[in-house]
Amino acid sequence: MIRRFAFSLALSVTLPLAAVHAQDQQPKQPKGDAGQSRTQNQTQGDTGTSTNPAGNSDATGGGSEGSAASGSGSTNSGSNGASSSQNDGNGGNNASSSEDGADGGNGTSNSGGQKQGGTGNDDASGSQSGSQSSGQTNSGSSGNATKPSQGSQAGQQANPEDGTSGPSAQGKAQGADGNGAAKAEAGRTKQGPASQNTAKSGPDKWMKPTDWYTFNGDLMAQKYSPAEQITPNNVTKLTKAWEMHTGDVSNGSGKLPMTVWSATPLFVNDTLYLGTPFYRIIALDPATGRQKWQFNPKTQLKALTQPDLKNRGVAYWQADNPDSSKTCQKIVYIGSMDAKLFAVDADTGKPCENFADKGVLDVNKWNTTNDKWPLSLLQPPTVYHDTLYLGWAGKDWTDAAAPPGTVFAIDARTGKLKWTFNALPKEVISKTGTSNVWASMSIDPETGLLYIPVSSPSPNFYGGNRKEKLPLATSVTALNADTGKVVWSRQLVHHDIWDVDTDAPPTLVDLTVDGKKVPALVQSSKQGFLYVLNRKTGKPIFPIEERKVPKSDVPGEQASPTQPFVDRPEPVIGANWPGVSKLADAVSFGACSRKAKKLRDDGKFTPPSLQGTLTFPPTTGGVEWGGGAVDPTNGTYVVNANHVVQIYQLIKRKDYEDAKKNGETSGDYAMEGAPYAFHLETFLNWAGMPCWKPPYGTISAYDMNTGDLLWKHPFGQVQKYGFYMPKSWGSVTIGAPAITKSGLIFIGASMDSRVRALDLKSGKVLWRANVDAPAVSMPAIYTYKGKQYVVFAVGGNSIIAPKVSDQVVAYALPGGND
Amino acid sequence: MAKLTTRTTSYGGLLMFVAALAAVVIAIYDFVNTGNGIAYSYGAGLVLVVSVLILLGALVMVFLWNKPAWLSGILYVLLLLGILGNGFAAYMLAAYWLAIAMVVALIGWFVHATIDASEEERAKEAVRKEVLS
After folding, report:
1. pLDDT confidence of A307, banded at 50, 70, 90?
2. Most buried pick, A10, A21, A618, A752, via CB within 10 A?
3. Which stretches are tagged as biased composition: Polar residues (chain A) (predicted)?
């Protein structure tokens, strides 16, 4: 209450920077949604992953560098010790490393994955171990740095250097597992009744590069359009082509919760498809915005796992050879917060009777472990080869033991289960959970690898209850899309106690490094690092280095002694927090600097503490769920990032319970089952001004062939009560950019309710337009009947500004079709 | 006669009044024009209210001659603060037409304060005019 009062007072008095604020105030979001910072935070929180602290993780984790770790991870549990020591041996810099080393290894998660699966033996193990060792080795050496190898071989064996296990390893593993359904079931990967390997390779027939057929534009999450009609030279002429309002919006003042809408419109089948926060599907004429049909599932509109009604859009599937005499040869899917997945005919909007139960799949029937809340389907599934890959969001800040994160592969026609994958070992799910995949995923259509961003385990900010190695947690993991087996995995944060979920799909792109073509992926992160990996092997293309990080001073917690660091490409945010803002300090009569001195700040990865830890970046990132965009023709990668400082403070259970009795738990997360609750607070002064120096948000471009930063600018403007703050401050952003072949970047995302076009070469803003609320989504770019359109769904998000909307707006050059 | 007429006309005040009137119109448009980024915001409401107050102040300043000296002094100060503050607020709102209106009002204020006849002079001129007529 006090904070709320201070906030409103601030609002009424001065500067805004609500973004940050907002997060504070709404701490309860699920991981899943990330939609907003809040969500993410919360979610993660939920996950409880943090709990891991047990030291083990560290040990493991730490070492692990992540990648390999995973593999090890699972495997590890058992063997950690051993591995560790080995690693140590290597020792690298990380003191701690020994343990870490092990993990770090990098292990490729494969093993991990598989092992977890329970298969145990599996190759996985074999490979893993290998990996781990390597991993460790790496770590060890890491200290130094993992070598950038692209190596082809890597693929085939566990890479000692990286720690990641190679594909071959996987292959084996899979092989091993793979066959035996029984075996698989025992493991973390379970085969379902519809399990079946696909003989197909490459993108599906209906996937046209000129369409915008997935949440990220395409399977590889490039957010790239080959359209060239709108150019840097004529973009200033861009005008509104059409606008429509869905009607599905709530500001929370009535019976309905507030809406948060981050949908990417899909352009496919000569139609624009939208999902709304009321879980309706709307089909529009792409040239006029006129409604073709709409589907209303009439599902409950309650904030079951999130503080708001949320949606990120729909997914589309089409048979390779549609039979015009049959219905549902083309299907649009939308999920709901109560775990229902609806499938309707893409031409008529009528439910597909042959999909699950008359067009409705209740995913919650698979929610059988720690099922304290429904598996909210806020992110549309990823579609590939007649299969839907489905993650979910939850409410993981409330308990240590939460539903373990599961990825479901579902038959696109029937809704039957093909396989499930879980990132956590069975042995730990009685005391922890999540490590779910709430963001979107990417797929390499040529290799059939599915890349999943795995979030942190629960509870988010304390890991003393989960000291086991959890190598797949907070990782980027590659699965065989046909079987769900882990091919490789790289842990990005060991023993995550900061709720820095891997929150965006990796962007897949072929790079030319040192004259050689390399199949790469770029994984953005909340921690501000951009991990550039060989997407076939998981090995780093630019070095990843295990470095010692601060220890935890909280009884029961054991933070990882090392964490993976990336220096190249240059992180999207600074290495240390920006320092106290003189303006905010003056307005607060020195309160900002006095408070800063009382908080623990030992640099990046300083663990949460009882006194309060100055955390930069916190759970808000860094980079949010949108991730980046890439121009595949030249390797230019663009990404927007937040520069936010928050205070992480653990609260002894008894103190929390006492405060709860007095109703003084605003901003607190219960983390039931852990010895501590958690208090999350954005570092603001009494007036609501950030106590740290701007900018608060930036956008950067990199040449990923070299890892060079091309340019970096403050992006967006903070807007409060209508007033725009200086451009040099930038804005916290939620959403992502999209790139066109003509050299333009289109992006909304900022809290100032504007959408913009930037010059890809310079980052200069060439065009902007006002919209009804922050466009917290990513645009869709398509060409229809010879005319290029850029469409934004403008939904708003209370985290960055108290504005919501149901606007859909399309921009195009004036005149007829050229 | 011509000189007399000039001395009794408050060009600066009139300019300020007209600019304030324009500001009110612009502020109303900005407040209700959905899609401009500031519609129905506190900031847009604030500049609307302040614009109205400036208009009223200019009205009193220009057309009410027999004001006590203290009231004139206060009005001068308040109008200057109002114009400067509203202009800055308009700039921060990216309401640039409103900001331009405030610049014009500021010019009017300066003219009124430095060139226009004082109230006392204008009162005397009015008396003379009446006598002559």
Report:
1. confident
2. A618
3. 36-55, 147-159
